[in-house]
Amino acid sequence: MTLITPERNQAEGHTDSAAAFVPDQSRAERKTSFDVADFPVPHGREEEWRFTPVDKLTALLSDKPSDDDAVTREVVAPEQVEVGTLAIGQAPRGTVLVPGDRAAVVASANAADALHLKIAKDAELTEPVRVDLRGNGAGKRYNDHLVIEAGTHSKAVVLVEHTGSADVTANVEVLVGDGAQLTVVTIQRWADDANHLAQTDAQVGRDATYKHIAVTLGGSVVRLNSNVKYAGPGGDATMLGVYFADSGQHLEHRSFVDHNTPRCQSLVTYKGALQGDTAHTVWVGDVLIRAEAQGIETYELNRNLVLTDGARADSVPNLEIETGDIEGAGHASSTGRFDDEQLFYLQARGIPEADARRLVVRGFFADIIAKIGLPEVVDSLMEAIETELAATGQ
User: Fold this and answer.
1) What residues does 317 pair with on adjacent strands?
2) Which pLDDT band, with edges at 50, 70 and 90, does 29 fall under?
3) Nearest 5 degrees, angle CA 69-CA 75-CA 77?
């Protein structure tokens, strides 16, 4: 945790210490821009890219348009949802999300038409809005931009699922109107040769509730940046994530909560499991509490379960506080193997070790996946996790 007064923030920078995981600048000072030239192709030594295997992403980070047949996209939406497109510069596109890295800026510049989902004011959807994106071939390039606009006092769930093979850069821009309740679920069930780099930015209105759930079970390199800021007091943001990395996979999740308004709340919880040689996961969680954000409450948690030798989990929580007038703020991170006491408890009741291990992993993920609230999706994801475990006999 870093306590920063406005005076200190202007007078001195942070000490760059890998051991202490202290960033070299305030999160508020990171560059954002719509100009591709402002973000050179990373070489991997930058703070933002030091965990990412950028050598595998040269083609994906190039400034180029989508291939014509890269993906097939299907949208299913209730009648209270207006489905359209937004050109570059056509509001509300670009009003919340400004690219923060090379992947996001090339997606923004090369996605000519953004998909626009506009949920009507006061609408309470009984069925989710579904966006299915299926990649049609390894190495095929696709730049995507999705804008979700939840009208005031509306209530909805939007489910975005990725399958198949492709190289995708994507932006998701979310506007949660005053008093609205919106849940956005993104599921990454890519084939083993897919690569996916994405930025999701949400603006939470006065007394609105926003929940973002990221589930990543597939892909070669997947790197997701999920960011939240507030448009008025009383906003509540929950950011949840589940990921399961196998041998050779790199799954990276980054979150940033910008507490820029008084009397708001945030909760960030990400859980991951790893198995197999060279499986690698990364979670970087940033929370900034600005001087004007009095009375806020925030907490972030990351837990990683290492199932086999040869896997590596990096976990970096960062908390910046510019005011002492808050309700509470904290973070926690843990990485370890199975809890021997849990296994002993289950085995002492006649459950074989392999089944006991599967039960522990299911329980590890179940509380987050259940929050999706769609039984058919929850069951499907738990089955996918069972399949992952069966792959190496866990």
Assistant:
1) 285
2) confident
3) 170
If one compares 385 and 391, the residue with the highest pLDDT of the two is 385
Segment 187-227, tens digit of pLDDT = 999 999 999 999 999 999 999 999 999 999 999 999 999 99
Q: How far apart are CA 365 and CA 369, in angstroms?
A: 6
341 three-state secondary structure: helix
Distance separating alpha carbons of residues 394 and 389, to the nearest angstrom: 5
What are the two backbone dihedrals, phi and then psi, of residue 263, each rounded to the nearest 5 degrees?
A: 55, 50
Q: CA 309, CA 279: separation in Å to the nearest integer?
A: 10
φ and ψ at residue 207, rounded to 5 degrees = 55, 25
149, 151, 154, 157 alpha-carbon torsion, rounded to 10°: -10
Q: Which tokens in the block code for residue 295?
A: 């009375």
Closest CA to 333 of 300, 364, 358: 300
pLDDT at position 362, please? 86
